[in-house]
Amino acid sequence: ILSVGQRKVMQRIVDNALAVSKESVKTVTYESLNNIASCINGVSALLLTLLPGKANILEGLHGWELRPTLRGPRLPRWMQNGVSSFNHFIHELSVDSDTSSLDYSSGEEESDGPPPASPSSQCSRLSWASASAKSEGHWSDWITFILWWLILPLRILLWVPQFFLRLFFKRSSRTPASPRRNQHRPRFSKTNSSKYHDVPNRATDRRRGVVEDLHLAIEICIEAIFDFFHRATHLLLSPSEAFGILLSWFSPSSHRRKEKHDHVSDDETVQTATLGDADPSLAERPTRLYNTMNTDTRTCQDVITELGYPYEAIRVVTSDGYVLLLERIPRRDARKAVYLQHGILDSSMGWVSNGVVGSPAFAAYDQGYDVFLGNFRGLVSRDHVNKNISSKEYWRYSINEHGTEDIPAMIEKIHEIKTSELKLSQPNTDEEINHEEPYKLCAVCHSLGGAAILMYVITRKIKEKPHRLSRLILLSPAGFHEDSNLGFTLVEYIFLFVSPVLSRLVPAFYIPTRFFRMLLNKLARDFHNYPALGGLVQTLMSYVVGGDSSNWVGVLGLPHYNMNDMPAVSFRVAQHLAQIKHTGKFRMFDYGSRRANVEVYGSPEPLDLGESYRFIDVPVDLVAGKKDKVIRPSMVRKHYKVMREGGVDVSFNEFEYAHLDFTFSHREELLAYVMSRLLLVEPTSVEQRQTSQKGMKLKKKKKEGTVV
What pLDDT does residue 215 have? Predict the structure, then answer.
């Protein structure tokens, strides 16, 4: 029987052995995983050197050309600072797990060198980085490291009894530990608090990728396993405590405590406090799953409000029951408004994703506009008035519904809001003067949004209904697609050939499960951390879309592709685009039979929108991208040519942009051009409105006099 002093000595020896073994295993696993990731990055760089045409595709993407660097082995963290940084990292994770930022191009993280490879705290990273430089002066630490590994047989001998003591560990782990938790709670400093809670001023993306998640999972597993070993050896060296725990198993009071503990843990909350708050008392908040998974699940509302702008969400219901989200950066007294409409596989996030400086929505608001951000139907969440609508029924729509249902519902809602607000601010002003609105509404649309807004204006004029728009600014608009690469042509023929069968099996194209959407969100971060791998994915995606050099990898990391929701493409929208490309005409959806077309359009052929451009009665500004391979400049010029032939007041301009550069890149010249076109539309002044009102009254009096 060992004395108390001998047990303490043995416990100290075992604790030191476990500590050394734990940090050594962490080091080996960390280095192994990091070397695998570096190898993948290196192979990606090698493949990139063999792919043709990568120079234009990877323009502006630095770090993909990997160059080998030699460095010494990293030492275990316990040899550098004497204590594991795991607890510090857990605290840091709990503080900033859900605080990623809008600007993904931070200069602090997007360096040409290798990415931060460990998910540990910043202090730990610095100590690891400096370990190789100081390795020559730490021979004593190396000797200590080798000596501790000599006790490996002892650890193996202790494995068998420790395995049978797992139940003791489970039991002892349920004992109250609040005093101890309070003892080891990390200290909060005022600097750290402001850093992690002042979201608008931080420009660092703190999401973890798949590789970093593997680092974290391995470190947590190692920590749990060695903690189990530590508790088990403690019980082996303290038989009396182990015997007391064994007796407590059969105690009735322990079962009651267990039931009470389980009841409390079912609804677990986390107590939090932030320095600088008006009320420093602890507040309870429920834990949320996406915080643990560390994915970027922000919405457009989060981005706008984080940057200090006002926000308003408007629920719009279309005539066929689809529920749309119309978002707004409100200026309620403004007589000039702008409506921004996104393209395919996009959302309103595209108009605010570049922050205050590079986003069209914020630029328009700063110029005094009331900004409305439209969202088409087609989110994975499938919001509809009929909550029991089937997937097949929900996705049964084409571009027709975007132009004749979605946009009319949103613009009518804008009209309703603006007229009511302006009546309140100026009650003596009539709603309409000479059939003019009391405000001026311009539309800025990208890609598919441009085709839909043209369809909207033409169909409203044919129906003799007001479209309420004063100017159209179309950025690389869809509509004509016959000039495209061989890949798009092959997809077109294959799609049209299999569409009768495929339409019954695949109602829409999207990532179906939350897990795979989360995986995409995290892989986008890995593509950022490993530039050669990201460059390879960027090049391959560019090949798929005909060599377009847009930042496809960066777009995948935007919050609207998150685990909770994402924009999708219905089968009929894709089929409609294939029909437009196949016929070479910008026309409405062909339902496949003369009878079906007659029921919808009143004619056996769909309405040719290109031949109906004469109905467009507002100025149109067309913008093309010289590097755009999705909608080539020749197709935008075709819009311009047909509009000119139809007598439309139209202008045409080109920029050195790819397809996604119109919304997802910082392009000051584009913003300046769009703002200059918007400023051409001046709202009606107060004097002009008063003069018009007097003229209308005089006309009424003259008519009354002639009647008498």
Answer: 84
Rounded distance between C-alpha atoms, residue 480 and residue 637, angstroms:
10
Tokens of 701: 């009096």
Write down the pLDDT at residue 605.
92
pLDDT band, residue 254 (cuts 50/70/90): low
CA distances from 247 to 171, 228, 234, 243 (A): 11, 21, 17, 6
Residue with token string 């219901």? 317
What distance, in Å, lies between the first and last C-alpha atoms of the chain? 125
Give ∠ CA 482-487-492 in degrees, rounded to 5: 55
The DSSP call for residue 286 is E
- CA quadruple 277, 281, 286, 289: dihedral positive or negative? positive
* Tokens coding 571: 């089968």
Q: Provide the β-strand partners of residue 473.
A: 444, 621
Q: What is the mean pLDDT of residues 7-13?
A: 79
Q: How far is CA 257 from CA 58, 171, 254, 263, 412, in A?
A: 62, 12, 5, 10, 61
Confidence of residue 134 (pLDDT cuts 50, 70, 90): very low
Distance from C-alpha of 513 to C-alpha of 493, rounded to nearest angstrom: 29
Q: Which two tokens stand for residue 631?
A: 């909608």
Task: Note the pLDDT of residue 441.
Answer: 96
What does the pLDDT look like over 473-498, one tens digit per residue?
999 999 999 988 888 888 888 888 88
Q: How many CA atoms lie within 13 A of 97 on its CB side?
A: 16
pLDDT > 70: what percent of the chain? 65
Pairwise CA distance, residues 419 & 466, whole Å = 15
Tokens of 309: 């702008």
CB 166 within 8 A of CB 233: no
Task: Tell the residue number behind the tokens 């406090």, with chain if given.
Answer: 273
Q: Tokens representing 415?
A: 């009209």
Confirm if 79 and 145 have CB atoms less than 8 A apart.
yes
Report how far residue 44's alpha carbon sits from residue 65's, in angstroms, rounded to the nearest whole number: 9
> Measured between alpha carbons, how far is 105 from 113 in angstroms, rounded to an integer?
15
CA distance linking residue 658 with residue 36, whole number of Å: 34
Secondary structure (DSSP) of 256-267: HHHHHHHHHHTT
> pLDDT for 59-96, tens place per residue?
655 554 444 444 444 544 444 444 444 444 444 444 44
Q: How many residues does the chain have?
A: 708
The predicted model scores a pTM of 0.71
Helix-, strand-, coil-residue percentages of the chain, each rounded to 5: 55, 10, 35
Are residues 460 and 608 in contact, defined by beta-carbon separation less than 8 angstroms? no
From start to end of 197-310, where are the E strands?
269-272, 283-286
Q: Distances from the Cα of 80 to the Cαs of 29, 35, 572, 657, in angstroms?
A: 18, 21, 61, 50
Mutual angle of helices 210-236 and 239-249, in 10-degree steps: 100
CA distances from 635 to 239, 445, 628, 652 (A): 83, 16, 11, 12
Q: Do the beta carbons of residue 353 and residue 308 sit within 8 Å? A: no
DSSP per position, 491-534 = HHHHHHHHHHHHHHH-SEES--SHHHHHHHHHHHHHHHHSHHHH
pLDDT tens, residue by residue, 277-289: 344 443 443 434 4
Q: List the helix and strand counts (H, then E) for the chain.
A: 31, 12
What tokens does 40 get? 């993948």
For residue 207, give every residue at least 6 positions away whose Cβ sits within 8 Å of its Cβ, in sequence order, or none: 100, 294, 295, 296, 521, 522, 525
- The band of 329, judged by pLDDT with boundaries at 50, 70 and 90, is very high
- pLDDT reported for residue 408: 97
Per-residue confidence at 208, pLDDT binned at 50, 70, 90?
Answer: confident
